[in-house]
Amino acid sequence: MLRKLWKSSIQLLTVFIMLLILLNIPALFINESRNISFQPIKFIQAITNMGKQIFSVHSLTFQIPASTGNMKTVSLFPTVLEPYVYSFTILFAALFLSLFVAASIAYLYFLSSKRIKNMIERTVFVLEAIPDVMIMICLQMFFMWYFRQTGELPVHIMTFNENRAYILPIICLSILPTIQMFRMMILYIEEERIKPYVEVAYGKGLSSSYIIRIHLFKNIFIHLFHHSKMIFVFLLSNLFVLESVFHMSGIIQFLIFTNHFSTSITFIVLIMIVMPVYLLFQICSYFMKRWQTQMNGEII
C-alpha cells in the first residue's frame, strides 16, 4: 500500500514538473523584445517566479470586463470555483449518462432480433459519422425551431447571465462517448460469451437476460475501466468545443483566453483539472484490482 502511494506521489509530482516546464518553454527561446534566442537563465527565472506565485495563490488576480465597460481586477479564488464546479458537473454528468445509455443499449442489443440489431448498428454508424460540433449546432437549431413553433423552451440552449444550460450540453457531450462505450461493450460481451463459465450458466437453465445482466456486465466493466481514461480525455477535449458553442462560462475559459491570464493561473487551473481526475482514477483502479482479484477463479 505504501509502495503504491509512493508511486502515485512520484507520478503526480512528475506531472507538476512537466506542466511547469511546458508553460515556461517560451521564456527559454523568446526574450522581452520578441527575438528568438536561447535563454536558459530567463527560463529558470520564469519557473522560479511561477513557483513563488503558486505558493501565494490567494494573491493571484486577473481582469474581467465590468458592467461599466472598463476592466476590473478580481482574485482567482473564489472566482474560479463557480465555473470549475459548473464544468465538472457537465463533465461527470455526461460520463455517467454515457455509461448508463451505452449499457442499456448493449443490453437491449443482445436480447433483440436481428432486425432491431441492424437498426441499432445503422443508427450508431450514422451518429459516429457526424462531427460532434454539428450535433451540438443541430440540437440547438432544433430547440430554436421548437420554440418558434410552440413558444416554449424545455431546456436552455445557451448560457446567458444566470440562466445556465445543463441538460442540452450534457446530452451533446455524452453522444459520442456513448457510441464508443457501446462498441467496446459489444466487443467484450462477444468475447465473454464464448468462455466456459457462460456455457455452464446456460447449462443451469439461466436466461440470457440474467447472464448478460449479472455475469457478463460484471466482467466487461473491468475491461471497460482500462479504456475509461481515453474516454475521459475525449470528454475533456470536447468540453473545449462545448463551452464555446453553448457560451458556457466554465473552467475552460481560463485555458482558452490565455492572453487575459498569467501562466501561473493557467498552471493552477490545469492542476485543478488534473488532480481530481487523477485521484478518482487511482481510487477506482485500487478497487477494480481488488474486485478483479476476488473474481479470479470464480465459478458460476
UniProtKB/TrEMBL annotation:
Keyword Transport recorded: yes
Membrane topology according to the record: Multi-pass membrane protein
Cell location: Cell membrane
SUPFAM superfamilies: MetI-like
Chief localisation class: membrane
ABC transmembrane type-1 domain mapped to chain residues: 84-284
Transmembrane segments: 12-30, 84-111, 123-146, 166-189, 231-255, 261-281
Xref: InterPro entries: MetI-like, MetI-like_sf
Family to which this protein belongs: Belongs to the binding-protein-dependent transport system permease family.
Protein's name according to its UniProt entry: ABC transporter permease subunit
This protein's record includes keyword Membrane: yes
Organism: Bacillus bruguierae
